[in-house]
């Protein structure tokens, strides 16, 4: 009888320690999530052209949305609003290009050779005059490895390294798809959003609408803020290059403007290009002055202008930006670096809005279903 009781007691004990059991279950869940994540990345790699087209279309449509809203208030039909907005933007850009190209085309042609000469000058200094023990062979190997990495970044939608012609063809295809998609977003974006809501349970529609509005506002704020900072940085750095006697100030300003859409990395690349160009066309002293101005402008933008232009809702910790850039570059190359920060900003703000909505629901539930937990609070005076 005693042995039977002891055997039943042993049989009732857990055969695995609870911590080990929890770790095992969690590990299997993480493995499942990892498999789904890798499968999603594989699908995105196969649909590279479509992913890029949709991303460009969303950014393009968001940038043109204010103009489309003004036309819509005038009573124009949605198709006419979308067509007029896109054609107007195309005409505006065409006019700007027509005005700039004749005067700066030759400067852009000289930009590449100028940067190459400046890199060669830096290489000569490192080998001949620098205190570092660097040989020309080491520098050549480094440049060959860098060229190889840039070549590896040029890959097709299948993930295989291909010729630049095929990559250019895929990019052109993505741009055409993006233009068509932007037209339909501007034309039928509202109706598509309403149709999407009908697929959701009624209790979730208000939350999804709130999250979508927050994402749309975040994207608009990011585009406006990046464009504003790009104009400020481009004008200041371009003027500095011109004042110190350097050439190619307009190409440097244009590159600085577009680099502002890639935080940190874009500023470093644009500043390096400005310094290298000034080094060849004006000398060492002016190049140092341009570098100092570039650093001061970046600090001014990051510490003063960015919080004002972007607002608190778009403040991202530098580590979030750095890891976003690194992750986007690793997953999708240069294209991933371009879209990493706006995607991260949207995700962070949507999560914050979801938490705020959850807190609002808790307060509402506590108010409607009984007293909320916690210390009692006297009601406000009537």
In terms of quaternary structure, the protein is: single chain
Ranges where pLDDT stays below 50 over 5 or more residues in a row are 156-161, 369-382
Q: Find the count of extended strands (DSSP E, 2+ residues).
A: 0
Strand portion: under 5%
CA-atom Rg in angstroms: 28 Å
Short description:
84% of the residues lie in helices and 0% in strands. The chain is mostly helical and 382 residues long. The longest helix has 52 residues, at 318-369.
Structural commentary:
The protein is mainly alpha-helical. The protein folds into 2 domains: 18-105 and 164-192, no CATH class; 200-363. It contains 11 helices and no strands. Helix 7 (202-243) runs antiparallel to helix 11 (318-369) and helix 8 (249-259) packs antiparallel against helix 9. It is globular. The model is unreliable at 156-161 and 369-382 (pLDDT under 50).
Helix-strand layout with pairing:
Layout: H1 2-12, H2 18-46, H3 48-73, H4 78-128, H5 136-153, H6 164-198, H7 202-243, H8 249-259, H9 265-281, H10 284-310, H11 318-369
Helix pairs in contact: 3-4, 3-6, 4-6, 4-9, 7-8, 7-10, 7-11, 8-9, 9-10
Using brief descriptors, characterize the structure shown.
mainly alpha, 84% helix, 382 residues, 2 domains, 0% strand
